[in-house]
Amino acid sequence: MATDAPPPSKETHKLPTTEEFTEVQESAEFGELRRSYRSFAFPLTVGFIAWYLLYVLLSNYAGDFMGTKVVGNINIALVLGLAQFLTTFLIAWWYARTAAARFDPKAEAIKSRMEGGA
């Protein structure tokens, strides 16, 4: 059975030593990458978890409110439940876009230096 896997690369990358990893981990560039990632990911994670827990709490303790009809048989619980999916996809899209623009170039530069590239 043939596969579409590319042939093995002839490029060889040097393997970084433990000391090189430690040096990069302690560098200002890596610290900035870590800070920018955390300042983006952590608030979004906390916000989404709070939004999800609000939905769960409302579902458990505010049944009358969640059962309020919006249009026809569509109630607030259904609207908020669907909004959970929407916010999940929006956060994933926003993260992918931000990572490609801000995090990946910095990470790639560090990686290529560690592997003996440019």
TrEMBL record:
Keyword annotations: Membrane, Transmembrane, Transmembrane helix
Region (Disordered): 1-23
Keyword Transmembrane helix: yes
Statement: the UniProt record of this protein carries the keyword Membrane: yes
Residue spans crossing the bilayer: 40-62, 74-96
InterPro entries hit by this protein: DUF485
Protein name per the record: DUF485 domain-containing protein
Organism: Streptomyces doebereineriae
